[in-house]
């Protein structure tokens, strides 16, 4: 009698695993770039679940690459140093003094913690920044505000990506964890680069199958704030039309998704990082849980 019951209670587990089979087959050996950010970055339980998900992907035969920023941690550390945070055009004005703090927080705090969490599961994660091996090269970014170019300090615009070091780590079975800092070949300075933009540029350069961006919302809403209906799938052209009306926080994420799918990445997804194991739910279930952006199909109006 006990045996039958045991079989029964375990059955849903088997069904869940079988549902994942076509996705496991499809994604095997593929590179997936994950932008780690938002609440998942500061909540201990979500951080631990994120690390489990990424290691699960690695064991399931995928090649995860993690890219992170660290907005809240940078703000907290700048406050401690008595340095004022000012934002222009949605970007943090970064003085040389602030840049030292940014670099210290990203490479010395956020990245180290993430590497530590992943490595609780095995010798997988290796931390690096965009400076290492010229992985990300940038030039000084000067946004245009009211028709004038504005100096916002050490904020960089990506000019080049060299994926050699990342590919070597992936070939060795490692999980690269990359801080979004870059060096400029023009002036030799180190620049702070938007992590959403960096993740998208890396996904395109690596020929990743998927870019996943963790956010603090469920996905892209159909008609926010009038409705909380999430758009589950849209093409690059459909997204492009929506861009001018998006909230400022979503713009770099959705521009990143657009850049990725227009440059060879099969799908880009914005998912809710506040949901435990959202990465696995998105990649290995039929429903998925966020907004997926796909390239335009032949014949789509561009």
What key phrases describe this protein's structure?
two-stranded antiparallel ribbon, globular, 9 helices, 16 strands, 302 residues, Acetylglutamate kinase, amino-acid biosynthesis, alpha/beta, Carbamate kinase
> How many distinct folded domains?
1
The CATH architecture term is 3-Layer(aba) Sandwich
Distance between the termini: 62 Å
CATH class: Alpha Beta
Annotation, overall tally of beta strands: 16
Write the CATH fold name: Carbamate kinase
State mean pLDDT (0 to 100 scale): 91
**Poorly predicted regions:** none
What pattern of helices and strands is seen along the backbone?
HEHEHEEHEEEEEHEEEHEEHHEHE
The largest pleated sheet is described as:
8 strands, mixed
Which of globular, elongated, flat, extended, rod-shaped describes the shape? globular
> What fraction strand?
15-25%
Main-sheet strand order equals 5-10-2-1-13-15-16-14
Helix amount: 40-55%
- The tally of helices reads 9
- By CATH's scheme, which homologous superfamily applies? Acetylglutamate kinase-like
Global Rg: 20 Å
GO biological process, one term: L-arginine biosynthetic process via ornithine
Keywords: Amino-acid biosynthesis, Arginine biosynthesis, ATP-binding, Cytoplasm, Kinase, Nucleotide-binding, Transferase
Catalytic activity: N-acetyl-L-glutamate + ATP = N-acetyl-L-glutamyl 5-phosphate + ADP
Subcellular location: Cytoplasm
């Amino acid at each position: 009698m006990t045996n039958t019951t045991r079989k029964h209670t375990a059955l849903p587990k088997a069904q869940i695993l079988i549902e994942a089979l076509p996705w496991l087959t499809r994604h095997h050996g593929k590179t997936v770039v994950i932008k780690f950010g938002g609440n998942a970055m500061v909540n201990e339980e979500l951080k631990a679940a994120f690390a489990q998900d990424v290691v699960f992907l690695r064991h399931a035969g995928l090649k995860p690459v993690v890219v992170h920023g660290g907005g809240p941690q940078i703000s907290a550390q700048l406050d401690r140093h008595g340095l004022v945070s000012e934002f222009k055009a949605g970007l943090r004005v970064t003085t040389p003094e602030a840049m030292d703090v940014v670099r210290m927080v990203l490479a010395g705090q956020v990245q180290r913690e993430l590497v530590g969490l992943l490595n609780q599961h095995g010798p997988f994660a290796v931390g690096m920044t965009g400076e290492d091996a010229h992985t990300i090269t940038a030039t000084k970014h000067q946004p245009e505000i009211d028709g004038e170019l504005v100096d916002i300090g050490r904020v960089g615009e990506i000019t080049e990506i060299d994926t050699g070091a990342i590919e070597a780590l992936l070939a060795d079975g490692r999980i690269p964890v990359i801080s979004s800092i870059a060096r400029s070949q023009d002036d030799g300075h180190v620049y702070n680069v938007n992590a959403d933009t960096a993740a998208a540029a890396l996904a395109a350069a690596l020929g990743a199958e998927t870019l996943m961006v963790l956010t603090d919302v469920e996905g892209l809403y159909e008609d926010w704030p009038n409705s909380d209906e999430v758009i589950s799938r849209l093409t690059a052209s459909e997204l492009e039309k929506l861009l001018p009306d998006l909230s400022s926080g979503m713009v770099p994420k959705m521009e990143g998704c657009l850049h990725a799918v227009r440059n060879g990445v099969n799908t880009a997804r914005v998912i809710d990082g506040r949901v435990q194991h959202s990465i696995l739910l998105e990649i290995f279930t039929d429903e998925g849980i966020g907004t997926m952006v796909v390239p335009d199909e032949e014949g789509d109006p561009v």
